[in-house]
UniProtKB/TrEMBL annotation:
SUPFAM superfamilies: Clavaminate synthase-like. Belongs to the iron/ascorbate-dependent oxidoreductase family. This is Fe2OG dioxygenase domain-containing protein. GO terms for biological process: small molecule biosynthetic process.
């Protein structure tokens, strides 16, 4: 079948975003700072332009841990089209989804996760709705489809038979978007982080994120996800306390999310500990720091707690679609600031000999495994202070230590 025939069969059409909420002005909202990548100029002559952007970024990554990226050099029409394709994939009939499950139907029935068996959160394919228990018998209302190995197209395309037709016929478009995020947007952002930390540009990129095609196992372990949230019934909403996705920090280095107008993503304000909605900036990506970048920066950057909740009354009967990219560092990336010899962190006393005495020397692989074992096992909004390798599994402690 041609791509057009497959699209027709599965009713691929533009995803229609919900209208902005009329309650917006009366709700607690954070407007994130934006990094305008059209102002990022390469080469020695562009250095000052990058320093200016790094100044804006430093404020964001050391407080909210969230920022927007705008003018990131990708055709908006292509991205719109991809959102339509994502909607088509996530709407496939349940029996079709059943053939491409990342794991099983319910978390409780899942075999232990290993390096080879990645489970419903991380394996490629569908995590169906109702996989996670949320609260008081209510189960999640999120369908997601994970892609792995997009940075190694040969591997991805070799296994293409393991994906439904809609993924097969649109594989190139999916690969293209995620390559752009990784090799262009992420590369620039990680160079700006080098500038913030007083490192030579490309330090973080090479150590943590550069793709090594000749050495696939050593490449950055990023994975991509299409994600659709469907509304709860009134009864589910009452029981689950409006929680769609419990509070957490990401394991990743950085996470990239397509911005959309439904007020549902909330961050726990670093300054006052209150949950606030992330405002929608049209045409932007919402980017957040994950644990890995927090640790690489010795805790200077903040992997903020965030969650997804039911939106205001006038948006709540609508689906919410996002395209997300969890950019994990390479497995052997050290999550210890001392390894990077940052002048900035030295100045701040963020080293193992000063403020970080409790931190064990670990790699990304160790953290990924330790935290991965806790995923999907807690109730909505349960605050836990689990310490592993001298670090908190979730970043609930942030605002207690915040300096305004
Ligand atoms: O839906 C969102 O906007 C964020 C989802 C999220 O935080 C996650 O999947 O880690
Ligand atoms: Fe997240």
């Amino acid at each position: 079948m041609s791509a057009e025939e497959v699209d027709r069969k599965y009713n691929v059409r533009p995803f229609e975003d919900v209208h902005e909420s009329k309650f917006k002005d009366s709700l607690p909202i954070v407007k994130l700072d934006a990094i305008d990548l059209s102002k990022y100029i390469e080469g020695p002559e562009g250095y000052q332009s990058r320093v200016e952007l790094a100044k804006i970024l430093e404020k964001s990554v050391t407080s909210y841990g969230f920022f927007n990226v705008v003018n990131f050099g990708y055709d908006p029409e292509k991205l719109e089209r991809l959102r339509g394709i994502a909607q088509g994939i996530l709407e496939l009939p349940l029996e079709e989804k059943g053939k491409y499950l990342a794991s099983v139907w319910r978390k409780e029935d899942e075999p232990p996760v290993t390096k080879e068996y990645l489970g419903g959160e991380r394996g490629h394919g569908f995590k169906p709705k109702g996989y996670w228990p949320i609260k008081d018998g209510v189960r999640d209302s999120i369908t997601h489809y994970n892609f792995r190995h997009l940075l190694e197209p040969d591997v991805f395309l070799r296994d293409i038979e393991q994906h439904p037709d809609l993924v097969k016929v649109h594989a190139q478009e999916i690969i293209e978007w995620y390559h752009h995020i990784h090799n262009d947007i992420l590369h620039k952002i990680s160079n700006l982080c080098d500038i913030i930390l007083g490192l030579e540009e490309n330090t973080i990129w090479k150590r943590a994120f550069e793709v090594e095609p000749e050495n696939p196992g050593k490449s950055a372990g990023a994975y991509a996800r299409f994600m659709m949230y469907e509304p709860y019934t009134a009864e589910e909403s009452a029981k689950a306390g409006k929680s769609w996705l419990r509070g957490h920090s990401d394991i990743s280095g950085f996470t990239f999310i397509t911005s959309q107008p439904m007020l549902a993503l909330q961050i726990r304000d670093y300054y006052d500990g209150e949950w606030k909605y992330v405002d929608h900036r049209p045409g932007s990506l919402v980017v957040n720091i994950g644990d890995s970048m927090e640790f690489i920066s010795g805790g200077y950057f903040k992997a903020c707690m965030h969650r997804v909740v039911e939106p205001p009354q006038d948006q709540k009967d609508h689906n919410r679609l996002i395209l997300i990219y969890f950019c994990n560092p390479k497995e052997d990336t050290p999550l210890n600031p001392d390894e990077y010899r940052s002048s900035k962190l030295k100045q701040l006393g963020l080293s193992k000999s000063e403020k970080l005495k409790d931190w064990d020397d670990i790699t990304f692989q160790q953290w990924n495994f330790a935290k991965g074992a806790t995923l999907g096992k807690k109730n909505a909004e349960e605050e836990d202070e689990i310490i592993v390798y001298g670090r908190n599994i979730e970043r609930w402690h942030h605002f207690k230590t915040a300096v305004a």
